[in-house]
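Case 415 in the screening queue. Each case pairs one protein sequence with one candidate compound; here the compound is S-adenosylmethionine. For every case the pipeline is the same: read the inputs, emit a complex structure as tokens, and attach any notable structural observations.

Predict complex for case 415.
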Amino acid sequence: MAQGSGRDSREHALRALTRVLSDGRFIDEALAEVPAAQRPWVHEVVAGTLRWRGRLDWIIDQFALKKRPTGAIRKVLDMGVYQLLNQQQVQPAWIVSECVDLVRSREGEAASRFVNAILRKISGNLEAWRNPAFPATDPEAQARWASIPSWIWKRIVRDHGLEWARNFAESSLERPATWVRARAPVDRAEAGPMPGSYRLKEWWPVHQSEAYLNGELFVQDLSSQQLIQEFCETAGRHGRVLDLCAAPGGKSAGLAWNGWEVIATDRALGDERDTLGVQRRFKLLKGTADRIRAEHPIRALARDEALAMGPYDAVWIDAPCTGSGVIRRHPEVRWVKGERELDSLLELQRGLVQEAAQLVRPGGFLMYSVCSVLSDELLAARALVTEGGAGFEVAREWLLADEADGFSGVLLRRR
Ligand SMILES: C[S@@+](CC[C@H](N)C(=O)[O-])C[C@H]1O[C@@H](n2cnc3c(N)ncnc32)[C@H](O)[C@@H]1O
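Case 415 output:
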């Protein structure tokens, strides 16, 4: 059995976790300061702890009835319990002793004894904690078991039923696979169900590979590949498509490889709400457009310019959303975004749909997708049909989850 990670790595993990949970950083940003040699271990523990956090706290609180731990003590406990449940190759006693040492050095002897007692109790009954019974009736306890914030959990149950929600939560606790789309077979990867899809058998830096640098490969989750494939089955494989929310360019790349002439844009560069983010994302989009080899090269254009080139044969809105479908791949998102943000997202989605509807030629298509499984996030697109007048009908709808990332989508055809 392997021994522990070393105190230094655990300190890095604690700092990274704090950056995500207290400063609202994305994991990749939070890990940027971790030395490269320690990053894989720290990434595994931080991402895993965030994925499991709701359930970890639920387990911990069953022991810490009187004194609910907070701050660094809570985070060290979360990381320790995550490892105890998931890193079966590491001796439990090592995990406990490293956590206890770290807490002693930061918080003193009494706190370290408290952490020691909780971790020992949990490690004494690990098999039971690895598969805890699903709470039958209490929605708050179910949400904690599911490791999904209560407001998202309740909406998923309302939209898709308890069984579906439970399966979704369980698969969202697993480590995500990396999928790519490539022109030729990929090293250390197996072919997937979509044309050109490959699943890496283990993670390796594909972005340094020759195929990636030559624009013959890009990283794309399986759901997005499926949406593009099935969009093309209905909307065809030629014509001009506007990718309205395109950065960093995954959908654009997939559409270009399926024969579309892609005009890609994103938020206006002068958007004052988040100028740096806007510029960084546009740079990523431009990088994808320049790199990807396709019969019709992707054109990344400023928003005004792209809108002025309408009407289009198709417009794809891959809308900003809660990210509730990709909580396995981006485990921090569920803890960072709150219910308060939902209303403004829904409004933003409505605005994008209204704008895009004007840009579709008669007989053309409007594709709307979100990496979310909340039905409310499809309302904007459905409203074009239900409210009438706009001349759109539903051609196809999607709710993807299971093995793949959670995505919802609606394809509308303009009469
Ligand atoms: C889900 S991401 C797009 C991912 C991209 N389609 C891909 O497959 O790589 C949503 C995008 O919407 C963009 N966005 C946010 N508000 C927008 C707006 N008002 N107009 C256009 N794009 C917007 C964000 O900058 C972000 O790049």
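Case 415 observations:
- Residues 220-414 form a domain with the Rossmann fold fold (CATH 3.40.50.150).
- The radius of gyration is 23 Å.
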